[in-house]
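# step 3/5: fold
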Amino acid sequence: MKTYRPTTKSRRTMTTLPFKELLSGDKPYKPLMKVQKRNAGRNNAGRITTRHQGGGHKRRYRDVDFSYNKKNIPAKIETIEYDPFRSAFIGIALYADGARRYVTLPKSIAVGDTFIVSEDAPVTLGNRLPIGKMPVGTFIYNLELRPGAGAILARSAGNHAEVIAHDAGYAQIKLPSTEIRRVSDLCWASVGSVGNKEHNLVVIGKAGRSRWMGIRPTVRGNAMNPVDHPHGGGEGRQGRGLRRAKSKWGKPTGKGQKTRTPKKYSNVFIVSRRKVGKKRR
């Protein structure tokens, strides 16, 4: 991690990634970039649906390929780049037919390394193949939930899922959340784990840096009035006065409380629920 001279109080603890050592130094590939309007947590009616979002530095969206629909064509990694929209590093994959696509990069990959998307691909770093053809114990990332729908799980920096069993056309996958889930053997995944593992060691250091990232302040519920939050009110500092923590809308939250919809459609695919709090350690 890169540290700084303590010229201010916030600078003393602030850390960043050593990008010059980790990235290839190439400029972004313009044909795969576009301007994306910021929604700042609002829906199509302009109402806030996700709090604590807004502002931030101007960013241009990189069109990352999660479908991996160019099969049986070897590809070479040309660059390793930073993406302001995700924690993982991305890079240009140059396919043998001349096409270029942005892809998320696994740990330990370097410029010049190759991978292939194929049903007969060997189980080696970066290759992509159906889960049914992977042995037990394989670490995977960019995992599909429906065959051909594109990667949706294990895409963040340092994350990976693990194949722990095969049974009756399904693979049992241990996800980064510790949940064990059944996934069809026909779904595809990439071998390895997502790069930029040190992302979780970054110390933002000051409020202003959060604002550059588009993160707005979060106010504690017990600092509000009763009209604004179930934890609000009271003379001076008060506890929440409730047995269980609640959200702004009265729903249970935090402290290991279950928030999943009891009759969710995907319950049948869950072998073991995710562990929370102390049980996860």
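# step 4/5: annotate
The mean pLDDT is 92.
# step 5/5: archive (pending)
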